[in-house]
């Protein structure tokens, strides 16, 4: 879908982990809104990552172009410092030192999480790798991105997470990863406050990603059928929704007032009025409160 309001014309953005899911939705939305989007990840054509998925960063860029945007695919393993450093040096040279938006969406933890096991029975190496992929990668990326923003005294860093608070998320290693990046956004906000740079955390609701559709054996055309397997899927949202949330934040001239906060797609939809791809406004927060009362 082409964004008729190109509110981010001329902006330079990086979506770290833009191969699929929320990252792809965000990258496409930023491009449609006028930003030049560097789409990074490990999965490229002819060389899949250990996630063993078919989606690639080049595919994401093709969708950006189809929607009237400008996308640049760059293969980066965000746990490798030298590759991250090279990415931002390239952006510094190609964009005359400008970087306006960074979205840290690197995850890669789904196949590592053993949901039914307590932490002492869970694979320690997998638990540690989850932190490396989902937390350390974000720190490394922000470390090299922030100086570009500081130099221009403007910028927005968005940490993609799960949830808006520090309540337990069902598995220690998963919980540690997701709450850590909320802390990361809050800590960066404090350090960046006097430099004109904003940092926030953002969560989707029940995300209807490519992997989740495959898990249920459905497509976007018949996704409601998956509610026969998991009734809560009826309240799911597409990656387009979180893309619109990111565009809304990046387009808000008063976004600095939100620095250090943790936000949700449904809450921002209430505030800014954007909708999902099917013109609905999914509200996972309200659904969760109604179906999982504390």
TrEMBL record:
Coiled-coil annotation: which residues?
A: none
Q: Which PANTHER family match?
A: DEHYDROGENASE/REDUCTASE SDR FAMILY MEMBER 1 (PTHR44147), DEHYDROGENASE_REDUCTASE SDR FAMILY MEMBER 1 (PTHR44147:SF2)
One Pfam assignment: adh_short
Q: Which SUPFAM superfamilies match?
A: NAD(P)-binding Rossmann-fold domains (SSF51735)
Name-wise, this protein is Short-chain dehydrogenase
């Amino acid at each position: 879908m082409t964004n008729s309001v190109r509110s981010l014309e001329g902006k330079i953005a990086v979506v770290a982990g833009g191969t699929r899911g929320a990252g792809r939705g965000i990258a496409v939305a930023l491009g449609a809104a006028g930003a030049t989007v560097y789409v990074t990840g490990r999965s490229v054509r002819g060389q899949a990552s250990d996630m063993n998925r078919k989606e690639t960063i080049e595919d994401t860029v093709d969708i950006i172009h189809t929607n009237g945007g400008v996308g640049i695919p760059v293969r980066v393993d965000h746990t490798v410092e030298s590759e991250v450093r090279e990415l931002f040096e390239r952006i510094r040279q190609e964009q005359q030192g400008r970087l306006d938006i960074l979205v840290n969406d690197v995850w890669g933890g789904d196949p590592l999480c053993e949901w039914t096991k307590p932490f002492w029975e869970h694979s320690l190496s997998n638990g540690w790798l989850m932190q490396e992929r989902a937390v350390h990668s974000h720190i490394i990326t922000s470390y090299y991105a922030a100086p570009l923003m500081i130099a221009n005294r403007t910028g927005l860093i968005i940490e993609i997470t799960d949830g808006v608070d520090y309540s337990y998320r069902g598995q220690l290693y998963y919980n540690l990863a997701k709450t850590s990046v909320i802390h990361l956004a809050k800590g960066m906000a404090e350090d960046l406050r006097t430099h004109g740079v904003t940092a926030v955390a953002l969560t989707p609701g029940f995300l209807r990603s490519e992997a989740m559709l495959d898990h249920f054996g459905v497509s976007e055309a018949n996704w409601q059928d998956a509610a026969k397997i998991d009734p809560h899927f009826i309240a799911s949202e597409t990656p387009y929704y979180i893309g619109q949330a990111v565009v809304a934040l990046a387009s808000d001239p008063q976004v600095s007032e939100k620095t250090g906060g943790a936000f949700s797609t449904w809450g921002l939809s209430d505030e800014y009025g954007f909708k999902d791809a099917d013109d609905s406004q999914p509200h996972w927060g309200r659904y969760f409160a109604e179906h999982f009362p504390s």
